[in-house]
Amino acid sequence: MIRIGKISYWHVHAWDYTKQAQEHPGTEMAAVWDENPERGQAAAEKLGVPFYANLDEMLQRDDIDAVIVDAPTAMHQEVMVAAARAGKHIFTEKVVAATLKEVNVILDEAAKNNVKLTVSLPRLNDGYTLAIRDILEKGLLGKVTLVRARLSHNGATAGWLPEHFYSLEECRGGALIDLGCHPMYLTRLFLNEMPGEVSAHFGYVTGKQVEDNAVALLSGSTGAVGIVEAGFVNNHSPFTIEVHGTDGTLMYGTPESKLLLRSSAAGGEWTEQWVSYPIPNARESAFHQWVGHIENGTSADENISLAVDLTKLMEASNLSAREHRAVRIDELSE
Fold it and tell me: On the CB side of 77, how many CA atoms lie within 13 Å of its CA?
């Protein structure tokens, strides 16, 4: 049995991961630490486990094997380095950290201490992503020329996001670094290359400290372009993916949750009209994969690689929006 210490209930998905740990037959919750003692104490009481006001005290427990991190983004390096040095395996909410320099520190400590690290990038495992990867691997779109992914909700206009999600100090950004992570890592995946340059533009519809409306333009060496859109200010805005290529186009979520394909490379009806492409069941969640890596001594190579690229693209986007210019990925400090 893998016994888990919870590092903070700051994030809105913290209880979702707790539920996964409670439901998984190989894991159980064992302790809670939170930078907000009142919130942490309440969570510990709800779970029936000890609360620790001092993180190191919790990490020193020999009977805790791993941690789930949902602390503020600004604290990720601090808490994950402490966990790695204590030899605790780490499952963390995205992003790993807001800058490449911070990510490299975390990864170095995890490697030194043989810690299994997995990042919650849930849409990598959804059926539509698996289907799109299948289409691309079969070459049905030809050479990819443009990827567009959009994810937006009304959290800021409807007032249901917690107020601390608008803190630049805690979050290190707004709609893009939070919700926009999902279309960002999917766009990176479907482009099948790491973009070399990013140009981002932020909007402040509700006047918050962080952006609540954002778009990032990604470009690379192949000529393909990526468009990432995110927002906290939209009602009825469907999660949307488009991938265009020299031989075809696919569209998902426009607005129904089905995948449409038209391809001159596929032949038959696929050439003449839009055809619904089958979407398989989702594969196991990132949390389940993490448990498997701990149990089997394996590593989340693709997950970590995409998580590092995600941080690079987010750091470049924040810098681009702040300085009103395109930012090259090779400008980032390692």
Answer: 14
Question: Is the domain of 105 the same as that of 246?
Answer: no
Alpha-carbon gap, residue 153 to 252, rounded angstroms: 17
Domain end among 56, 91, 115: 115
Task: Let me know if residue 168 belongs to a domain.
Answer: yes
- Domain identity same for 159 and 238: yes
Does residue 65 sit in helix, strand or coil? Answer: coil
CB 271 within 8 A of CB 110: no
Q: Considering the domain boundaries, does residue 178 fall inside one?
A: yes
Domain match, 86 and 138 both: no
Q: Residue 76 belongs to a domain with what CATH number?
A: 3.40.50.720
In a domain, 269, yes or no: yes
Rounded Cα–Cα distance for residues 292 and 287 (Å) = 9
pLDDT in tens, the chain (334 residues): 999 999 999 999 999 999 999 999 999 999 999 999 999 999 999 999 999 999 999 999 999 999 999 999 999 999 999 999 999 999 999 999 999 999 999 999 999 999 999 999 999 999 999 999 999 999 999 999 999 999 999 999 999 999 999 999 999 999 999 999 999 999 999 999 999 999 999 999 999 999 999 999 999 999 999 999 999 999 999 999 999 999 999 999 999 999 999 999 887 887 889 999 999 999 999 999 999 999 999 999 999 999 999 999 999 999 999 999 999 999 998 8
Please tell me the pTM assigned to this model.
0.97
Question: 18 with 75, same domain?
Answer: yes
Q: Is residue 230 within 8 Å of residue 183, measured between CB atoms?
A: yes
The answer to whether residues 164 and 10 touch, using CB atoms and an 8 Å cutoff, is yes
User: Under the phi-then-psi rule, with left for phi > 0, alpha for psi from -120 to 50, and beta for the rest, what region is 201?
Assistant: beta
151, 227: one domain: yes
- Domain of 109 in residue numbering reads as 2-115
Distance of alpha carbon 237 from alpha carbon 150, whole angstroms: 9
Same domain, 157 and 93: no
